[in-house]
UniProtKB/TrEMBL annotation:
Domain of life: Eukaryota
Sorted UniProt keywords: Disulfide bond, Signal
Pfam families according to UniProt: PMEI
Protein name, entry field: Pectinesterase inhibitor domain-containing protein
Coiled coil regions in record: none
Length: 179
């Protein structure tokens, strides 16, 4: 009878230990820690506000925060790409359409880079992907600087938003891989 009770206890303990996921064991970041990470960007308050606007950051570890920052950067890149596609479709100026389409392609590449980075957050390729995305973003910014369009100011702001998100991604990745 004692062996039976011991076996049941061992089985229950085993089930409990198996059911505990690694993410629930990971260190959850405090608001102070997130603010400290954001202090490494050019706009700490903006970084913190962006990250905390996502409900997933309420109880998150370093890996989760890196994932969220990649998701937010991808989302912004997709939005600007959709806007560029809409502008390309709406304009009758073929030169301007080419500018919009060229930038849209660059944002497609940015989304691809960020999605590839999300697949393996611990990969040494993540900084390369983020750097590539930053270069594509900068390239589009330069192309738009030369274009005379009424939408230029709006697009430049959106490009700066993506640039800032890529900075946040880099800071979160650096934090995740500092060990």
């Amino acid at each position: 009878m004692a062996i039976f009770h011991t076996s049941i206890v061992l089985i229950l303990v085993s089930i409990i230990l198996i059911s505990i996921s690694p993410s629930s064991i990971a260190h959850k970041l405090t608001d102070t820690e997130i603010k400290h990470l954001c202090s490494k960007t050019r706009n700490p308050e903006g970084c913190y506000k962006i990250l905390k606007s996502d409900h997933r950051t309420a109880n998150i570890d370093a890996k989760g925060l890196a994932q969220v920052s990649l998701d937010l950067a991808s989302e912004r890149a997709r939005k600007i790409q959709a806007q560029l596609n809409a502008f390309a479709k709406a304009t009758h100026d073929s030169r301007l359409r080419n500018v919009y389409e060229s930038c849209s392609k660059k944002y497609d590449d940015i989304v691809h880079d960020l999605e590839a980075a999300k697949k393996n957050l611990r990969s040494k390729n993540v900084p390369i992907r983020v750097k590539d995305a930053s270069e594509e973003n900068k390239s589009c910014e330069k192309v738009l600087d030369g274009a005379s369009t009424s939408d230029r100011t709006y697009l430049q702001k959106k490009i700066q938003d993506v640039k800032f998100m890529l900075t946040i991604v880099k800071v979160m990745w650096d934090n995740l891989n500092k060990k």
